[in-house]
Every structure is written in C-alpha cells, then in structure tokens.
Amino acid sequence: DTEVTQTPKHLVMGMTNKKSLKCEQHMGHRAMYWYKQKAKKPPELMFVYSYEKLSINESVPSRFSPECPNSSLLNLHLHALQPEDSALYLCASSQGGTDTQYFGPGTRLTVL
Amino acid sequence: GQSLEQPSEVTAVEGAIVQINCTYQTSGFYGLSWYQQHDGGAPTFLSYNALDGLEETGRFSSFLSRSDSYGYLLLQELQMKDSASYFCAAPGGYQKVTFGIGTKLQVIP
Fold first, then answer.
1. Residue A43, preceding bond cis, omega within 30 degrees?
2. Are the Cβ atoms of B95 and A105 closer than 8 angstroms?
3. Res B66: pLDDT
4. Interface list for A 37-96 with B (CB within 8 A)
C-alpha cells in the first residue's frame, strides 16, 4: 500500500478565514512533507516532519502552520492567506533520508 | 546545492518511443527519481536509479550515468494517456528533494 490521502480535494476560502488541510498515511513512513505547487512549476518544499518533529521549515510565512499529531497524520493550518497562496498543496511521505517520497492527490486551494 | 535540467516540452506520436533527458549538477548525489503528473493530478512515482544502468518497468525504463551526470526516462509504445508532465528529481541531504522544471509530453495520434 503506497497510498497517501488528503482532504479536502478542493478548498475555497476568503482572506479572513481559518481552514485546515489534512494528510494521512498508513505505510509506517517516518517522514512527512508539505509541498506547494503552482501551475506549470515543480513542487516547492514547505515543511518536513521527521519522527513527528518539525525538521525543516523552508522560510514559509507564519500564515501557514503545520502540525503532526502522530506518525500517520499531518495537518496544515491556514489563516489570513493571500490570493497568491492559491495553489495545489501536496502532502508526501517517505521512510526518511533519501528514500522515495510518495505523494497524496493534493488539495486545490483557491484564496479569494 | 543541486540543479537539474530537462526539456520543457516534447511531442511524440502514439506508438512511438520517446526519451526525456535530465542532466544534473550537485554537490552530493544519491540517485535520480522520475515522477509523472497529469494535469490537475499529483506526482506519481515512476522509478529511482541509485546505480548506473537501466531500470525497466513495463513500457517505462530509466537510465543513469553518474560519470556523465545524466539520466533519462524512456517511454515505449506511447499511448495517449502518457500525455503528462514528467519530473526528474534528486534526493539530497536533510530529506530534501530537488525537482527539475518538468517536461510536458504531448502524445499525438
């Protein structure tokens, strides 16, 4: 089973809203990732969690707040986003290190 | 750091063979991955080459030459559903992965 699930599939929110993206994996992977992808661009790393601890924050604005409640779950809390934050948000997981990352289907986010 | 270069677009005919090249420059290299992404979809892992040589998985093959800092993805017996973007990617230190810009493959009848 190489499945990573994400909810919701689509999200439309205003600039004053607070929402959360959710990601789940049951592959026993110890590393989980959030990426942002704009159209016609490669995925851009935002955060990495390793063994449920935040190990990498790629200088992401504080309006994005990640959370890892346990080894299978990863959340991304959104608050006061800007229209330029509209993108596909991808979750991925891996065994860690240089091991292959497996992506979820993504959440298509639109900020109005 | 790492950088990967791949063509932005490739067009090929249904039933034909197409090769997507990827050259890399890196201070530390562990291997080369390939991902497929259809429009509106998520990247799907295709293959990973840690060692030199050819890896074959059905109609898709991937090749790596560390001495030439070069790899490629070979797609045979192209089908219309193979129209997608293909990313080469290189895992680096600290669990980061560097992606190429992606090659948009258009398969035409």
1. no
2. no
3. 94
4. 40-43, 45, 48, 50, 55-56, 88, 90, 94, 96
On the question of pLDDT at A38 being above 70, the answer is yes
Q: What DSSP string describes B52-109?
A: SEEEEETTEEEEEETTTTEEEEEE-S--GGG-EEEEEEEE-GGG-EEE---EEEEEE-
pLDDT over threshold 80, residue B68: yes
Cα B18 to Cα B6: distance, rounded to the nearest angstrom: 14
Residue A2 confidence (pLDDT): 61
* SS3 label, residue A85: helix
Contact B6, B20 (CB under 8 A): yes
CB contact under 8 A, A45 and B41: no
Interface residues from chain B to A (CB-CB < 8 Å): 30-31, 33, 35, 40-45, 48, 87, 91-92, 94-97, 99-102, 104
